[in-house]
Every structure is written in C-alpha cells, then in structure tokens.
Amino acid sequence: MDRRVAIVTGAARGIGAAVAARLARDGLAVAVLDLTSEACADVVADIRAQGGTAVAIGADVSDTAAVDAAVDRVVAELGPPTVVVNNAGILRDNLLFKMTDDDWDAVLGVHLRGTFLMCRAVQRHQKAAGWGRIVNLSSTSALGNRGQANYAAAKAGVQGFTKTLAIELGKYGITANAIAPGFIATDMTAATAERLGMSVAEFERGVAAVTPVNRIGTPEDVAHTASFLVSEGAGFVSGQVVYVAGGPKD
Ligand code: NAP
C-alpha cells in the first residue's frame, strides 16, 4: 500500500502539533498546515528528525482560495491527501451582550467554515482513492459554556456537519468522526485562564479536581484518539463524537 497522506490544520502548536507528530510516527506523510508555513517549521523539523515525512503549508482555513491552493500543494508535494484532521481554532470569548459581529464571524469562520472548506477540497481525493478518514475537532463546549456562544455554536455545528459527512461519504470508504476534548493544556487554555483572572496552575488544579480521572488532558491524549480514528482498522467507526474529557459527557 502507498503511504497515506494526511493534512493536519492548526498544526504549528498545541493539539495539532501533537496529532501531526503522532500520525507521522504512525507512518503517514503529513502536511503540517497553519496560518504561515514559517510557524510550522519546528514541527516539520521534529518530524523529519525522527525519520518521518512532513511539509509545512501556510493557509488560512477560512479562505476558500487558500484552502484549495493548499490542498493542491499537498498533492504536488506529498501526493493526494486521504486523511484530514480539522483542528485549526481560535477563541473570541465574550458574554452574549458584549459579543461583537466580528467575534461571531471569526470563530464560526475558522472552526465551521474552515472545516467545511477543507473537507470539500479533500473529499475528491478520498473518493478517487475509495478510502478516506475525516477527523474534526469539536469540544465539550458544544454542550454549552458560559462566555462561548460563538465557540459552542461552531463546535455543535462541527458535530452535525461531521455526522452528515459520515452519511454522505460512507459509500466511498470514507469515515468522518469528531473528537470533543475537555480541558487539554495548550496555549488556548492558558488564554482562558488569563481571561478568568487565574494563574494557569490554579486553573488546571481546579479542572483536574472535577475531572473523574483526576487530571487535565494533554495534546497526546487527543493525538492517540486521532491515531485510532484514522487507522485502517477503524473503518466501521463513523459519524461518532468521541469525548476525550477524562469522564462522561452528555
Ligand atoms: P491552539 O494552541 O490555540 O492552536 C491552534 C492553532 O490553530 C494555532 O497554531 C493557530 O495559529 C491555528 N489557527 C488559528 N486560526 C487559523 C486559521 N484561520 N487557519 C489556519 N490555522 C489557524 O489551540 P489548541 O488548544 O491546540 O486547540 C486545537 C483545537 O482543539 C481547536 O479546534 C480547539 O477548539 C479544540 N479544542 C481545544 C481544547 C483545549 O482544551 N485546548 C478543548 C476542546 C477543543 P495562530 O497561533 O497563528 O493563531
């Protein structure tokens, strides 16, 4: 079998960087995509240093032309992508009465439109191969979270979008699943601690105390789940939302 080619978005840091590294260790060639290719340089260098194959791709996932050009570059540099992990994300938290049009549009644009654009661009390569894996990052915030009306709507939207792709694309050998992490220690959660007026350590201790497994999550926890969902053996798992949250979620 030819080596599978994966695109991981928002992969310059945090969860995306861990997913890119893990898929490369699993033997996939990985397009490490983030807003600029320079931001991806360290992740690509680490993967190559460990004997993996990776290229850096700069693109804004909310921009149709940029996404289509990025996927064309992946085809040219690594081959047709059949795995996509839509992980790029931003926060613009605010209570509803203070939330601006831009807060709303920016978050929906990156998380929901970005996931749509990337899936639409990649699916033709997946269909041509008769095989594909789509993994979209949702969040426990999809269940509702104070100060995150935009983000919760986007992440709930990602779940409905993912289930629909599972239904539409299943006959082509393509699975689509969402991962909904709870608290995963990254720059994003550090920014949330700051917004809440807490130190990162204080915030993390508080979250761990109310998490059944009694710890916070790591990017590698999410990467492990992504690795399973894109694996050859996971072909009968589709349309699911997997909570990686250290305990049950409704
Ligand atoms: P992060 O550390 O903030 O990393 C997100 C990455 O996405 C950054 O490198 C960012 O680039 C990039 N990005 C932002 N906008 C982009 C765009 N338009 N096009 C391409 N790349 C873009 O976030 P994270 O904590 O690893 O989160 C990754 C994903 O998991 C997100 O979808 C997030 O919503 C989800 N998630 C995270 C948690 C958590 O606890 N951390 C929990 C649930 C879900 P810049 O650095 O230039 O902004």
Automatic annotation (TrEMBL):
Keywords: NADP, Oxidoreductase. It comes from the Bacteria. Residues 4-182 form the Ketoreductase domain. Transmembrane segments: none annotated. Its EC number is 1.1.1.100. One of its GO terms (molecular function) is 3-oxoacyl-[acyl-carrier-protein] reductase (NADPH) activity. One of its GO terms (biological process) is fatty acid elongation. InterPro entries: KR_dom, NAD(P)-bd_dom_sf, Sc_DH/Rdtase_CS, SDR_fam. It is an enzyme of class 1 (oxidoreductase). NCBIfam families: PRK12826.1-2. Belongs to the short-chain dehydrogenases/reductases (SDR) family. This is 3-oxoacyl-[acyl-carrier protein] reductase. It comes from Saccharothrix violaceirubra.
